Amino acid sequence: MRKAWSIAAALALVGGPALAADPTGNWLVKDQTAVIRIAPCADALCGTIAWTSQPGLDENNPDPGKRDRPIVGTQIIVGMKPAGGNRWDGEIYNPENGKTYTSRMWLKSDDMIRVEGCVLGFLCGGQDWTRTTAPAAAPPQRPAPGKK
User: What would you measure as the largest C-alpha separation in the chain, in angstroms?
Assistant: First the structure.
């Protein structure tokens, strides 16, 4: 019986192709009102608003000097570092209320990422974002089923 468990464990480790853990690219938020571009920044990943259906200013920023900057180009995913598997931990800035939260994100598939923000480290809420091929200046398009 012990030998069977050892074989099963070994097969589980090498049995299937690993998900290419690459969250970089353009992601369409759940309500389809924005595209967030995730890219490397220093030794982490960061995400910037690349497109929004509601352009405006970062008027809720706690730093008065940043309240007149355009919302497009604002970094909202900050310092996401690998936390094992397909997960990254860092912070997320919410321009709707000007607050920054502890955050985590993980790939659910090649074309879907879960992004969560947490208060007190355990009260978390989030969204699933879909990978998009839209350029930053154009309205986003979801990839055709089975296509990237």
Answer: 67
